[in-house]
């Protein structure tokens, strides 16, 4: 959870060693490669409601990518598709909900049902994510993961 994951050749690749990185105020910048032929420059902007991630991807291959949020307890809740902004919304309990959406690129909201007992705190979890088709060449994608109180929607 909470990572940009690439799927290529039936394998899942995430950020291993960061080639370079720095923190400037509420921004985190890093350059990394999930596997040979794909280079990523990531900027994470922390906001009061959550965070925004911008990824510049230079790829020599076509593959898929999922920008994933933090795992949420699986209590049988369903993802609500939001018409405004093309995102998703999941309740997390305690009167909070997570909005996750594509802010740039052709991303589609999904919820990944994680295998049982893969989280230290909860036996069953679901991972909010935005799915992207990565094409050869350069592209930029941006996602947002924002918390809201259920009584007052931000959209």
Report on this model:
The chain is mainly β and 155 residues long. It is 0% helix and 63% strand. It contains no helices and 14 strands. The strands form two sheets. Strands 3-4-5-6-14-11-10-9 form an eight-stranded antiparallel sheet, with no helix packed on it. Strands 1, 2, 7, 8, 12 and 13 form a six-stranded antiparallel sheet that branches. A hairpin with a 2-residue loop joins strand 10 and strand 11. The chain is globular and about 40 Å long. It starts with a strand and ends in a 6-residue tail after the last strand. The C terminus is likely disordered.
Can you describe this structure in just a few lines?
With 155 residues, the protein is mainly β.
Tell me the total number of β-strands: 14
Helix count from the secondary structure assignment: 0
| Rg over alpha carbons | 16 Å
Could you state the order of secondary-structure elements as H and E?
A: EEEEEEEEEEEEEE
Specify the biggest β-sheet. Answer: 8 strands, antiparallel
- The percent range for helix content is under 10%
Mean pLDDT: 88
State the low-pLDDT regions, or none. 150-155
Largest sheet, spatial ordering of strands: 3-4-5-6-14-11-10-9
Terminal Cα span: 25 Å
Strand coverage percent: over 45%
Tell me the overall shape. globular
Label the structural class.
mainly beta
């Amino acid at each position: 959870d909470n990572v940009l994951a690439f799927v290529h050749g039936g394998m899942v690749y995430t950020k291993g060693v960061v080639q370079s990185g720095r923190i400037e105020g509420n921004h985190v910048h890093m350059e990394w490669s999930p596997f040979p032929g794909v280079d990523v420059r990531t900027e994470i902007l922390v906001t009061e409601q959550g965070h925004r991630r911008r990824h510049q991807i230079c790829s020599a291959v076509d593959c898929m990518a999922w920008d994933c949020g933090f795992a949420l307890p699986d209590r049988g809740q369903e993802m609500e598709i939001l018409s405004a902004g093309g995102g998703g919304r999941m309740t997390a309990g305690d009167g909070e909900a997570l909005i996750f959406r594509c802010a740039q690129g052709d991303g589609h909201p999904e919820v990944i049902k994680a295998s049982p007992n893969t989280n230290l705190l909860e036996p069953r979890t679901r991972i909010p994510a935005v799915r992207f088709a990565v094409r050869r060449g350069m592209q930029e994608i941006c996602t947002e993961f924002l918390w809201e109180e259920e009584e007052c929607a931000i959209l």
